[in-house]
Design a protein that fits this description.
Length: 219
């Protein structure tokens, strides 16, 4: 029987796949067209038992019902939407103030007043930011939210220095049922953060290649 050639990327979500054949994409759970036994090469992962116990744990249903916070990209899009509202309010307020101050000059005097042009610029910026916010929100949630029992088998981190500050992004390799594994990015939240450790069982909340949260379930 010929061995199936593993795909380089998922045809559904486009995420990069590991070299070994898998029955499911680790990032969107799409079937890869491989028999599970073939994908695992006939050997069960040593972590399979612990992952099954997470699935059977009495806290599992509550963990699945929990909704994790969205990514930084999503919340950044929300902040962009707030800025759009502020620009719109400022632009409308400036137009009203201009109309009051230039009421003796008629409609053309108000519309062509120098302050009115600043109001137009603010309103144009509000429209641009609102469209950008909508686009960024849609992009941030384009991939499905998956809630799955798993085990953190490895982790690494990358730190980027910008000026006087820096930011750290953690990358967690998580194994799911059937031996499916994937690496997920988790942006650090500051020096006081206690990032997840290896050999940690629980429920992983992922959206594409981003880890939104991981709830530890002791098994």
């Amino acid at each position: 029987m010929a061995t199936a050639t593993p795909l380089a990327s998922c045809p559904n979500c486009g995420s990069k796949l590991p070299e070994q054949p898998l029955s499911l994409c680790a990032y969107c759970a799409m079937p890869m067209g491989l028999d599970a036994a073939e994908a695992e090469e006939g050997a069960e992962s040593p972590n399979a038992g612990r992952i099954r116990r997470v699935l059977e744990h009495d806290k599992y249903e509550d963990a699945i019902a929990w909704i994790p916070p969205e990514s930084r990209a999503f919340h950044g899009a929300i902040r962009t939407g707030y800025r759009a509202k502020l620009c719109a309010i400022a632009g409308i307020g400036l137009l009203v103030a201009t109309a009051i101050l230039a009421r003796g000059g008629g409609a053309s005097g108000v519309l062509l007043h120098p302050a009115a042009w600043l109001a137009y610029a603010l309103l144009a910026l509000a429209v641009y930011l609102a469209l950008q916010s909508a686009s960024d929100r849609k992009s941030a949630v384009a991939k499905p939210l998956l809630k799955r029992p798993g085990l953190i088998v490895d982790r690494r981190s990358e730190t980027e220095i910008r000026g006087w500050s820096g930011s750290t992004c953690y990358y967690f390799q998580i194994e799911f049922e059937g031996g499916v594994t994937g690496e997920f990015a988790f942006p650090g939240h500051g020096a006081n953060e206690d990032p997840y450790v290896t050999n940690l069982p629980g429920v992983a909340y992922t959206r594409g290649e981003t880890l939104l949260a991981f709830k530890h379930i002791r098994v």
